[in-house]
What we know:
The protein is an alpha+beta fold. 53% of the residues lie in helices and 8% in strands.
Amino acid sequence: MAETMSVEYNGYSRELWLNVVATTLGLTYSAYRQLRAAQKLPPGPWGVPFLGYAPFLSNHCTYLKYNELARRYGPICSFTQRGNTVILLSDHKLIKTAFDMKQITGRPNDGYMDIIGGYGAVNSTGKLWESQRKFLHLVLRHMGMTFTGHNRLNMESRIMIEVSTLMETFHKTCGKPIDLNAGSICLAITNVISSLTMSVRFEPNDPRFERYMHMVDEGFKLFGMLRPVSLFLPRRHLTDERNIQEKIKNNHQEIAGYFQNIIEEHRSTFDPNCIRDLVDAYLLEIQQSQDAGTMDQLFQGLNPDRQIQQILGDLFSAGMETIKNTILWAMVYMLHNPDVMTKVQDEIDSVVGQYKSPVLDDYPNLPYTQATLYEVLRKSSITPLGTTHATTSDVTLNGYHIPNGAQIIPLQHFVHNDPKLWDEPEAFIPERFLNAEGKVKKPDCFLPFGVGRRKCLGETLAQMELYLFFSTLLHEFDVCLPEGDELPSMDGQVGITLTPQSFKVVMKKRNK
Length: 512
């Protein structure tokens, strides 16, 4: 009898507990829907108390999960993550509208912001960001980062030194399989940035270069390992997260120390009448502010040397990693599409000639080559989530209320693979960037360098480098698969950028 009552009681307790849980979840969901409606937030999934939607995300292929949400909820959707509002934009027109708004020029306040302290150009905000963007734009244009004007020749010469050195390296491989990601391409691209910013060229096997690249590569991998719910992980995992953050901080400090040595070397040889590079341009700006007694206004009162350090770090990490990965993806697509490679080579031979290297003046006359590079940028979408912005005040977007401090994420990969915008988006078709007359066209939904007020400052330099490296390489070599190797994977390795998985090629000198 007692045993029967115990069983009945346990069954009743279990049923009661399930009813309580179900009722609580129902009330929570109802309250969530009412709160969302009251706030006029965009539609989106509901998460769990305190954590929001974070438990349903992972650090692996987050962009694919966001793409799923966009397909389910539409061009603008939202969710909460650890108390923060996150807005996903998957419509290119809406992205442009949002990123043209002054109220959406902020940057999210995450752990990395604590490390860099608001310095630099990529992660700075407000008046500092506005003044630095204007200053960098003027200085870089003066140094030749433009497709027009006589200074362009200086930039072209700077790039071609590295292109020629890289081609010599490939010729020395004598047809043997090589790993393009092993350092040669990275060294060439880094030297373009380092010569422009601080008049330094690294030689192969330079320990400074190897150490710097190790820290940069490690940094990108470590960022990819951070989890959206790190604040609520079990202690063991939380310790791992803290170790990762501490390692990122230590790497950042070591890189900053290296840049500080460069600044001190420049300061000791500085001549205001002979500006050699970007560091000198900053030293001149500091000197002029000191003479005018306005140092408290320069960099909004922040430490000048730390600002230069972070600017150098921004340009190195953004300029090197993105260009390197785009060239690597270009090689992947050429291996998968040898017919495209042949068409590019035929066009270059026809316009440039067989015995002269391509130059920037040839660029407008090589529409198929341009279209191929555009298709590489579209297909690879190496920054699948673009650049996250943040609101600096409450704002209305597409009829929805977006609160101050919300993170705004442009789903670049989604836009570049939307079948409503692109025919056969999964296929590699350069012709999609050519009109009926065979001239290059650039659709509004093509966003490789971002849009709006925080659009990539280095877009012109990136296009110069991609064109000169890619066209010269295909002009001199057939990119071949080593005998017995399988075609490289089309799935990227997820970190801050999408990186091709390791593969090897044979650079076969063309018979011209």
